[in-house]
Amino acid sequence: MVERWQISNATIGGVILAAGQSQRMGAQNKLLAEIDGVPIIRRTAKALLDGGLNDLVIVTGHEHRLVAAALDDLHVTCIYNDYYQSGQASSVVCGVRHHQKGSQAAVLIALGDMPLVRPELIAALLREHSSLPDAADRITLPVFDARLGNPVIWGRGFFDELVALTGDAGGRIIFAENRNALNSLSWPDDSIHLDIDTPEALASQKRRFQRMAINEKCRKLS
Asked: How does DSSP assign 148-179, residue by residue?
């Protein structure tokens, strides 16, 4: 059954950054850790696909074969980043270059370690950005409690700047230089801020997911 919030958007491509080494997690690759029996990277990818993205790229690096295997039967393209150890920017460059070669009008960039991001958020971001008359020159992102969050949609007008990034700064430099281009979408909770860097953060998100699942079951029964 297609939910009322779902859309299909062929003009916005997707990128999930999934190349990091999870150094603060110890020996465990956080993207392969499971929440309710599902690897985090798979849960993130499913949210983007279910939210309406049709052209989704997963940029891998550390343990790339294991990460790709966790996505094996999903409609995604895995791209290995040879330079992933140089910082997050190199993965952004890989993903954006893929879409730059095509006809995509924008690209949604997500972090692989945000399993609480829901398909409803992805669909809302796609709708919001697609409705802008000057979408090619805008940046659409969610906001909660006056704080910017993820994922972020970048209009095609920013592709050249994105593929010129270096180091580990990601898109923050571009934000700072293009404040007038920001298009914020108010979101009702802090899931847009919650990534996983430590075992403690993983345990916290597992507990929160369990609460969310219980609340959803109660909602459906009421």
From this structure: E-S-EEEEGGGHHHHTT--TT-TTHHHHHH-G
Do 7 and 52 meet the contact criterion of CB atoms below 8 Å apart?
Answer: yes
What is the pLDDT at residue 4?
Answer: 38
Residue with tokens 């950005």: 129
Structure tokens at 159: 């592709």
Examine the pLDDT at 69 and tell me if it is beyond 70: yes
- Name 209's Cβ contacts closer than 8 Å, sequence gap at least 6: 35, 36, 115, 116
CA angle 112, 116, 121 (to 5 degrees): 90
Q: How confident is the model at residue 50 (pLDDT cuts 50, 70, 90)?
A: very high
Q: Average pLDDT in the 145-173 region? A: 92
Element (H, E) at 102: none
What distances in angstroms separate CA 85 from CA 15, 28, 106, 208, one per listed residue?
18, 17, 26, 31
- Name the residue type at position 182: L
User: How confident is the model over 175-183, as a mean pLDDT?
Assistant: 93
- pLDDT surpassing 80 at residue 192: yes
Cβ atoms within 10 Å, residue 146: 6
Q: How far apart are CA 61 and CA 25, in angstroms?
A: 16
Distance between CA atoms of 70 and 19, rounded to whole angstroms? 14
Residue 7 has pLDDT above 50, yes or no: no
CATH code, 12-221: 3.90.550.10
Beta carbons of 91 and 100 less than 8 angstroms apart: no
SS3 assignment, position 32: helix
